[in-house]
Design a protein that fits this description.
With 104 residues, this protein is of the alpha+beta class. 22% of the residues lie in helices and 24% in strands.
Length: 104
């Protein structure tokens, strides 16, 4: 008699890309990715997409963050974003004191 062979499905890890911008916006869908490095690349791409979608609202100066979690809800890593509006930016000393770099 042949013994039963049990197959275990090789499932990729599941990641969630949750946004926090004064309120929580949990990622409604699971993203199956091969590893943590792939999740980091996706987080950077998604963040860039969100910043582009925000347009001028990104320059309001309010911080928002993305937290990447696994299927148990454990935070694996996070990214923080905010902008300093041009009127609040302070010029650096290097810019304030131009110098001739061509030797003329």
């Amino acid at each position: 008699m042949r013994s039963a062979v049990f197959r275990t499905e090789n499932r990729m890890p599941t990641y969630y890309f949750n946004i926090h911008d004064g309120g929580a916006a949990p990622d409604p869908e699971a993203h199956e990715l091969p590893d943590l490095d792939a999740a980091k690349r996706v987080a950077i791409r998604l963040s860039g997409d969100l910043i582009r979608e925000m347009g001028e609202n990104f320059w309001r100066g309010e911080e928002w963050r993305m937290e990447v979690t696994d299927e148990s809800g454990a935070v694996l890593f996070g990214l923080r974003f905010s902008a300093t509006p041009p009127s609040a930016a302070q010029p650096s000393q290097l810019i304030a004191e131009p110098r001739n770099v061509l030797g003329e």
